[in-house]
Amino acid sequence: MKRPDWVSKESLWKKHCRRVVARTSELLAGTVAPFVCAQEMVKLEFWLRAEDDPNFQLFRQLAEEGEALLAGNTETDLSELNRAWQERAATAASSLHEQYLDDAES
Length: 106
Fold this sequence. Notes:
Elements: H1 10-29, H2 34-47, H3 54-71, H4 75-105
């Protein structure tokens, strides 16, 4: 992804890009659940000013649904949520991984 003009600290931009790549890699490798990944991606969406990106929007929706389930303390429902979102989250993660990989590596 081309670094936006608003970025004033390139090192911080690259750090956030590395975090996107790391979290998406974990999700794609199956080492983290979609909801756990979504919780981190919501923070990165804010820091990267990516609120309009549909892939980040998907993770935000997943995080909101998971938070609502946690309020009810139902672990079974959270497991079901992760299964239901796995494919969509993996597709979004793959897209974000590719989008931010160049800046994460530079």
